[in-house]
Amino acid sequence: MISKETIPEELLRIGAVNVRPKEPYTWTSGMKSPIYCDNRLTMSYPVVREQIVTALVELIMKYYPEVEVIAGTATAGIPHAAWVADRLTLPMVYIRGEAKKHGTGKQIEGTFNSGAKLVVIEDLISTGQSVIDAVSVAKNQGAEVLGVAAIFTYELSLGKSAFDDLNIENHAVTNYTSLVQAALRTGVIEQDDLETLEKWNKNPETWS
Description:
two-stranded antiparallel ribbon; about 40% helix
């Protein structure tokens, strides 16, 4: 069984996170990044996903012990939300990026009572906008959103400011700093790459 401290190494090993400081990736937003994260891949690795779920449960019990409902963001947050909800024996819902354009037009699948204490599960946080939108949807449907639990955060100041401005609490299993350290430790990057990675993290807009 892997330990929580080695989760960044496992994400690198299975290719859920890739580091390419000399050939940055382009996100959907157009922003350039030396790191690309796709935590959907963890679904295919039982040992890794089990440890991530354990870490998410521990995080939730530490910061949101009064939680009553687990919500996953569509689509990447759904499987981990399901596993966490199952582990905690709690109801689960998932939140679409937009309301369905047919049928009942729902944006939240599943149900909860008004005032239910809810935690949103996200796979990763970059600018934070997608999960902030999900939190707003849940609040508009009557939930008391306690906060967000994510697998990974890029620790961008833009994301931190967005959460702070809306007073949304958020915590992650692992982060950019730990990931970079793991990449260096395992030989994925070299010492010379650290300055590039740190500069991007402090001011990613300059790469766009």
